[in-house]
Amino acid sequence: MRIEARNSDDAILAEIGQRLARTRLERNLSQERLAREAGVSKATVERLEAGEPVKSTSLIRVLRALGQLENVERLVPEPLPSPIERVKLHGRQRQRARERREEEAAAPTGPWRWGDEVDPGR
Fold it and tell me: Are 52 and 13 in contact (CB under 8 A)?
């Protein structure tokens, strides 16, 4: 079954439980051994696989023991920064163009020189 918003809470819990049971069996773990490795009771693993509600910490422990904890990142991704936070992260960005200052406009317009050349007029 695909987990979708239109599914009931009970149906979603049942599907999660079935998926965890299949993952446990693929790893050739008994419920008792998984419970021991996760630090929860065997009854908690049984309830989880049966689609019954369990504490979120118990679910996290079981996911960790099954090597599936990193999948929680996809379940609840880190939110993107707000537009105001993005501006703060990127620093101050230029908003306007400006006219050249008088001293910049009065600078010599001849060819560029290093400054250490001998002036032919000397």
Answer: yes
